[in-house]
From TrEMBL:
GO molecular function: ATP binding; hydroxymethylpyrimidine kinase activity; phosphomethylpyrimidine kinase activity
Protein name (database record): Hydroxymethylpyrimidine/phosphomethylpyrimidine kinase
Gene Ontology terms: cellular component: cytosol
Domain Thiamine-phosphate synthase ThiN: 280-442
Species this protein is from: Haladaptatus litoreus
Length: 452
C-alpha cells in the first residue's frame, strides 16, 4: 500500500560555529540542543577542531570563501528564524559573519567563544577586536565572566559589576546581554540579563561538577531555538537557563575528562513520563492484589515515581487521593497523574539530591512492629527527628520533607532503603521506602509486610 506523506514544518535555526570532534560542544552541541527544542538546525562550520573532554589538540579555520558559500546555501533555501554564532576563531571570519548577519532580519545570539572549558584558547587577539562589529548586530550577547572582561575591560565579580559589563556591551550596539555567572564564585549561579530597561537576574543552584563541556554553546543554542519558536527574549533566557541546569546536573559521563553536558536530558525526561506513570500504576495494582492494608497509614498510602531527570513535583507521578483501606482490602481513590503527591514527592526529590538514581518511593505506617520488620531489609534504615526541626523550617510550607530527607541522608553512610519519621504531636509516624526501580520497591515493601 502506498501511504501519503505527512510532513512536519518545524522552525529553522542556524548555527555558525566550529566543529567539536568530541561531540559535546560547538556545532554538535548546537544541533543536538536545537533538535531537543523541536527546531530544525542548519549549520555553517567555521573551524574544525581536534578536541575531546580533556582539551583541544588542534584547530583548522576554514577559508572565508567556504564560510560564505555555506551561508549562501542555507539562507537561499531555508526560512531561518534565528541565528546563533559560536567559535569564529579569527578576525576575517568574525568580520565576514558580521556582514552575513547584517543582511538578515532575525534574532541573532552571539556567544563570543574565546576560550574552551578546558582553558584552551579558541580566538586570536585580532578576532577579539573584530567582535565590536559583530556585536552591533546582536539581539543577545552571552559572554561568561572572562569573555565579558576581554570585551569590556570590566570583570564581573558580582551583580553590579556584571550589570556594568552588560551596559558597556549595550553601548557597543547589542540589544541585550546575558552575563553568565558560571565562572563567578558563589553557591548559586547568577546569570544577569541586561537590557535598556534594566537588569534581571536568573538564579540557579550551582552543580558541583566539572562536566560543563559545551555549556556555553548549549545555552546560546537553547536561547536561539526558543527565539526561533517565537518566544520573547526574556522567556527564551528563562527557559534556556532552566534547561541548562538540568543538562549540567545530569551530565554525560563520557570520555576520560570531566564529561559533557546532557543536551537531551529534558527531552529524555519528557519522553519517560508515560512509562513512569505506567510503572506507578503497576505497583499500585500489585499492592491491591497483595492487600497491603497492614502498611497503610491513617493519612493514606501513596506510591510516587519520578521521571529519570525529575526536578519538580510536577515531574513525579502518584495516586490522586492516595491509597486507602477498605473492608475488602485497599484501593486507590483515583488514578495516577503527575503532580498528585505533595509530601512523598518532595521527600523523593530531596532524596534524589543525594542519590539521583532513586526514582520510586512509598509511605507506610510506622510502629514498633514495622520497625522490627524493617530490620529484615538488606540495607541501611535512616531516620530524622522532628524535635530537631528548626522553627523557620516548620513555618515554611512544604519544607519539612526536604529538611527530613537531608537529615536522614547526611546521617547515613550509604543510601538508605527506608527513612523513618517518628512523627510528633498531631503528626503521624511514617516510614518511606525508597528504590531505584519498581521491582525493588515492591520487593522491599512486601518483605516488610511479610515480617509483620
Amino acid at each position: 500500500m502506498t501511504r501519503i506523506p505527512a510532513p512536519v514544518e518545524p522552525p529553522v535555526a542556524l548555527t555558525i560555529a566550529g566543529s567539536d570532534s568530541g561531540g559535546g560542544a560547538g556545532i554538535q552541541a548546537d544541533l543536538k540542543t536545537m533538535e531537543a527544542h523541536g527546531v530544525f538546525g542548519t549549520s555553517v562550520i567555521t573551524s574544525v577542531t581536534a578536541q575531546n573532554t580533556q582539551g583541544v589538540e588542534g584547530a583548522f579555520t576554514l577559508p572565508v570563501e567556504a564560510i560564505e558559500e555555506q551561508c549562501s546555501a542555507v539562507f537561499s533555501d531555508f526560512d531561518v528564524r534565528a541565528v546563533k554564532t559560536g567559535m569564529l576563531a579569527e578576525a576575517p571570519v568574525v568580520c565576514n559573519v558580521a556582514e552575513e548577519v547584517a543582511e538578515i532580519d532575525v534574532p541573532v545570539v552571539i556567544d563570543p567563544v574565546m576560550v574552551a572549558t578546558s582553558g584552551d584558547r579558541l580566538l586570536d587577539s585580532d578576532g577579539e577586536s573584530a567582535y565590536e562589529e559583530l556585536i552591533q548586530h546582536a539581539t543577545l550577547v552571552t559572554p561568561n565572566a572572562d569573555e565579558a572582561e576581554v570585551l569590556t575591560g570590566v570583570k564581573p565579580e558580582d551583580d553590579e559589576s556584571a550589570k556594568s559589563a552588560g551596559e558597556k556591551l549595550l553601548e557597543l550596539g547589542a540589544d541585550a546581554v546575558l552575563i553568565k555567572g558560571g565562572h563567578v564564585p558563589g553557591e548559586q549561579v547568577r546569570d544577569v540579563l541586561v537590557t535598556e530597561d534594566g537588569a534581571e537576574i536568573f538564579t540557579h543552584d550551582r552543580i558541583e561538577t566539572d562536566a560543563t563541556h559545551g555549556s556555553g554553546c548549549t545555552l546560546a543554542s537553547a536561547i536561539a531555538a526558543r527565539l526561533a519558536q517565537g518566544e520573547s527574549l526574556r522567556e527564551s533566557v528563562a527557559g534556556a537557563t532552566e534547561f541548562m541546569e538540568r543538562a549540567v546536573r545530569y551530565h554525560l559521563n563520557v570520555g576520560e575528562g570531566p564529561g559533557s553536558v546532557h543536551h537531551l536530558a529534558e527531552l529524555r525526561n519528557d519522553a519517560a513520563r508515560d512509562s513512569t506513570a505506567e510503572a506507578v500504576e503497576r505497583v499500585v495494582q500489585s499492592f491491591v492484589e497483595r492487600d497491603v492494608s497492614d502498611l497503610v497509614p491513617e493519612v493514606g498510602m501513596n506510591v510516587v515515581g519520578a521521571t529519570p531527570y525529575a526536578e519538580t513535583v510536577g515531574e513525579t507521578a502518584a495516586v490522586e487521593g492516595r491509597i486507602t483501606r477498605t473492608i475488602a482490602g485497599v484501593k486507590p481513590n483515583r488514578g495516577v497523574r503527575f503532580g498528585a503527591s505533595s509530601h512523598v514527592a518532595r521527600f523523593l526529590l530531596s532524596a534524589r539530591e543525594f542519590d539521583p538514581d532513586l526514582r520510586f518511593a512509598v509511605n507506610c505506617r510506622f510502629d514498633a512492629d514495622v520497625e522490627s520488620a524493617l530490620s529484615t531489609l538488606s540495607g541501611a534504615v535512616a531516620e530524622f527527628d522532628r524535635a530537631a526541626e528548626p522553627e523557620d523550617v516548620k513555618t515554611q510550607e512544604g519544607s519539612t520533607m526536604q529538611w527530613g530527607a537531608r537529615r536522614a541522608f547526611e546521617s547515613a553512610d550509604e543510601t538508605p532503603v527506608a527513612v523513618i519519621d517518628r512523627g510528633e504531636v498531631g503528626k503521624e509516624a511514617i516510614v518511606k521506602i525508597l528504590a531505584e526501580d519498581t521491582e525493588e520497591l515492591q520487593r522491599r515493601t512486601f518483605a516488610v509486610l511479610s515480617s509483620l
